[in-house]
Every structure is written in structure tokens, then in C-alpha cells.
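Q: Here's a chain of 360 amino acids. Please give me its 3D structure as C-alpha cells.
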Amino acid sequence: MVDVAAARPRFESQPARGWALGSQASKLGSEVFQSANAQQTIGKKCMKIIGAEEVHAALSYPGLIDALQEAFSKDFSMPPRKVFLLDDDDSNHDAFALLPSWNDTVIGVKAFTYFPSPQPGYKSLYSKILLFDRAHGEPLALVDGTSVTFWRTAGISGLASRLLSRADSETLLLLGTGNLATYIIRAQASVRPLKRVMVWGRSPAKAEAVVQQMADELSSIQFTVADDLATACGQADIIVSATGSHEPLVFGEWVTPGTHTDFIGNHHATNRECDTALVVKSKVYADSRDNCFNEAGEILVPISEGVISKDHVVGQLTEMCAGTAPLRSNNEEITLFKSIGMALSDLVGAMYTYRSVEAG
């Protein structure tokens, strides 16, 4: 694993402390969801308003990954998310959504608005996470949800890699150059001894920008732009795809034995980032079976083709973290993790941030 304690981010709004991968961060992550300690320190306090800069300063890998793994191994409640269309006009897709979850320490609800055609000066998405103390129902904090989403999404990718990729994985191929790209690289570097990272994007200039930023930050890793996806897939130990592609980008014939693959970008039942052949030859996992069988075209398309059944998904994140699902059993297996997103991850990220801010 790469020690980036001295790394400096290239984002002015993200203070360097947020990238530290030290023992203090891991310790904080392991303590976030210990309810007895948490309930002793929470109570009768003014609700905090925590913005994006504070989130970036508070969160770190592998500390957040530790907290996610602990939270998913324990009991929690997570009702189905609710999405409300704000207009009866079929041409208007403005929406408001609520994602609740809770455990024995904290209650949380993530709320976001989505306006796909925003007016000048406004964003298409705004998100906040509201936290309440589980013991007394007291409001604790209102946390910026957009920044937490970046951190927790990449954190789940890192957690899946920790559980499924080979321990000696040294080469990462990342497809996608959007907001998640740098977070995914940091998360993966915190759980595996990466020596080489290849970045592919439809825009070579954007891929080069990610490469330059991360090469400056993680100088012990070799960063390159991937020009040929087939070749890059064959060289990678870990493949993470976080794109908006509607059609497969990663094909089964390209992926070699022992590779771990992770697909993040698609949330549509008929779209997919990989082909059927890869799914068939892989040991398949999902963050949530329910989410997967509703929204993951990577799995639903092969099911509709009749080449796999739902039983092809051998485990979901709760089972993986609790040790009740079979994980990688040898260095030749190809593993595939499909992530849609779960409200508990938002709860963990927001609570981790709150505890860190409280600790000063």
C-alpha cells in the first residue's frame, strides 16, 4: 500500500489533512460506529453545519474504508429510497430524492435535488445529509452530501478490492476521468501495493490531467494514459470502470485470470460497462442484490439473455463484510463487483466526518 501521508492535493478546496493515510485515520475509522463510545460523546450539542471543505479535510483512506467495512458487518436499517418527480410534464425530469438509514448509533437521511437542465449559475445536483443521535433523536449535523458521495463511492470500491482482489495486486486500470477518478485511485492505493496506474478516458487530455495530478501526489506509483483498452485490460490486476457509457467498454476476452473488476458508472437496467462474457466467467458480487436486480444492466442483460440466473451473484456487501459469503478462493479467479450505491455508505461518511470535526 502507498503511504500518502505527505501528499498534497491539487484542489484548493480540499486541505491536505484529508488525504492522510495514517494510523490515526484508521483508528478513527474503526471507532466511528462503536455505539457505546459514540453515545457517551453525543448529546445536548448544537447541530453543526459541515460544508464540503470540512468534509474533504475530515475524510481519509483507509480510515473511511475501515468504517464502511465495520458498518456493513453489523445490523442496520435502510428503507428503499424515495424519488419524487417534481413535474407531471413528461419532458421535465426535475426530481427530489430521500435516502434514509440508521444503526444503533446514528440516524441519517440523504436528500438531494436533481435538475438536469439547470439555469445559469446553478448546479444540476445539490445534496445534504442530516444526522440525528440514535439514542435521543437529537439533531447532530447537516453535512454536505456531494463531497461525501465522492468519498464513500470510491471507499466502497476500495473495500471491494480489499475483500476480492489479489493481495499482491500491483497494476490498476481506471476507466473514467470524472469527479470520482482521483478518489478511486487514492482508495485503491490505500488497500493494495500499487506500482502502476493506467487511466483511460474518451478525452486523452482529461486522462492526462488525472495522470499528472496523481503522479505529483503519489510519486511512488507510475501513472500512464491507457491508449488501447484491450492491452490495458490484459495487463491490469484491478480494473475499475466509472464512466457514463451505455455500451460495454470491458470485454471478457480481454480480462486475464486473477483480475478483480469493479463497475460503478452505470445505474440503468439496459445499459452496461462490461459484456456478458466477462460476467459469465467471473465470480460476481454486488453492493446490494436488490439494487443490482433493479438497476444493474451488467447483471440484468445476461439474465435476460438466459446465460446466467440471479444465483450467479454469490454475495452482497453485508455478507462479504460479515464473512458469510465466499470471497476469492485462489489467484486464478476473476471477480466482479457491481456497485449501485447504498444509503448506509452516506451515513458512514457523514458520521465519520462529524466525529472528526468534533475531535478537532
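Q: Can you summarize the key feature?
A: DSSP finds 13 helices and 14 strands in the chain.
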